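subagent[fold] <- orchestrator: predict structure for attached chain, return tokens only, no commentary.
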Amino acid sequence: MAVTIIHKVVALMLAVCVDFSLFYASGFVVIHNVFGHLARLWLSAALRWSAVSVITLLTLGDLKPLLIRVITAYSLLPAVFETGTSAFYREESQCGRATDVRCWLMCAAASLAAALFWEIIIPDTDEEAASKEQKQKSRVLFMRVLRLCRPDYPLMLGGFVFLSLAVIFEMFIPFYTGRVIDILGSNYNHNEFLTALLFMGLFTVGGSVSAGCRGGILLCAISSFTRRIKAKLFQALTKQEIGFFETIKSGEITSRLSKDTTLMGRTVCLNVNVLLRTFIKTMGMITLMMNLSWKLTFLVLMETPITGLIQNIYDTHYQRLYQAMQDSMAHSNEAANEVVFGIRVVRSFNTENHEANRYDKRLMETHNLKTRRDTVRAVYLLARRLTGLGMQIFILYYGRLFIQKGQMTTGSLVSFILYQSDLGDNIRTLTYVFGDMLNSVVAAGKVFEYLDRKPLVSTDGKLKPDQLKGHVSYCHLNFAYPANPSKTVLQNFSLELKPGQMTALVGPSGEGKSTCVSLLERFYEPQNGEILLDGEPLKSYDHHFFHEKIAVVSQEPVLFSGSIRDNIAYGFTDCSMEKIKEAARKANAHDFIEQLEKGYNTEVGESGSQLSKSERQRIGIARALVRQPRVLILDEITSSLDTENENKVLQALASCPNQTLLVIAHRLKTIENADQIIVISGGKVEEQGNHQELMELKGSYYKLREKLFAEGNSPQ
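subagent[fold] -> orchestrator:
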């Protein structure tokens, strides 16, 4: 380490000595008029660059890109400075006439500042590779968004036409403003004055009308694209497996649907058009400014790297804070959704204040991030305005000199200042739009992440047999939930469900009964083993066909806002009213439905809130029965039914011939009537048989009966 530092110090000292000697030698050449001024400048720069590069290479053994850039800026800056001075003022600067240490130090400091500016804008580190990869990814995402905008191409084309017209009209307004001032300030000509005013009015009206048409058309394109991408994303989300929704928080999903899709619309329909408008206008204004005064134009363009540096620093900090704020807002929405969804639990446990404080804490995190974001933006705006003000002062100072020398008129200077003010805004807009497009593309990446995601539970099966018996076999299953993969719920689990028989699953809570139902419904895929339906794996069946033939009724059936008729026929498009009523009779729901004022057209309210728990349960049963499934799964459904309704439902189910019935229930009557009873413990089948056989064993089932089945549940 010490040797490396010594090598670097020696290299620096030798380079300084050699360069200082060449710098004074160039001054000697100037004094004796050996070469012309410009020839001497660039020859000196070439010699200094070569000498410093060779010494650095010999002492350090390697020239890194960073060193090459620093040496290049250091060597060429004096020549560039002198050439610019000669071009502007047709004379040499003080450093051109007298070479001393002060000039050498000034050039060294300026070159180091230029090198520092380069490294901030374009760093040559590992971050650069990551940045290039990110930019490449952003370009790919941008092209995908552009392809999704294909239906909106006609609108975008119309917006581009009006955009071009608006730019052309707006560019000539400052020119005629200066023309009017010149006419008023010199020999006044009434006809020329009226002509200039007429053109100004025409360009103003044309620019306003074109800008309005452009804005309206682009807003239509944005709305069309946003609607389409939201529908596409929602469709992709509904196809994901159940485990996806257990691992992804609802606040994040709603944030993608509501905010990120809107940002995607801005990516092309808004940002690209703003980018094109600003670019075309900038090029046109620079051309007109060059015609007015090329010297002042070059002076104005010197502001561009400073503006770029400020914008680059701002974008870096703003994007990081913006992403953190988006995540924080998603967390806040999630906290609010949890409380609204579980308001009964919150009220039962008297945790209103706790939840309010938790939500306020989330909001405070978002507020702090917004404050930091706004502070960064305030500092950025201050720096930007100071830069613009400083440039205007320079323009006024040099413009006065050029007017005195007769190189431009007062009206030309006014036009130039108007162009310069607009040009600065356009350059800042260009840099801002790039940053905003990056934000939009990041949002698009998150949306595409969901659009491209393939469900872990495949729905690509094609099997649709004409006859389905409903014979189900669980074959050596091992399963753990995706949200908790370390906890195995089912271990080497095997079970057979035969057509025409009722199978009851019993056991303590959390032992795997409902998991058997979830796997049979293909909400999840087992890690090992498989489930067969009539000897074929479940995944080989057509998705729509499979869920027509296998129906489930849960303990808490979910009803959707709409009528009772819509809920019974939910997902069954070709369902007649006769079938709906027949299913309702089997579920013992027809009588109470007919007593309602609107009958089957009665609105159930949000999540069925207008109905009692028992009524919701019976409608859930009718919704399953209307499909005439070959396999029917009842998961604790009789817990919400009284004895009379339960008896009627069970009698109706018993009348369905050759139907495979799987029941999870705690009521003794349901368990006693089952053809086979399966006792599950620890994710395995512990006992199997009918009620009488298991009671005679006096094993786990017998103990569960004594523990779980209270006397009030005993058969009448």
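orchestrator: received. Logging for downstream: The radius of gyration is 39 Å. The first strand starts at residue 472 and ends at 479.
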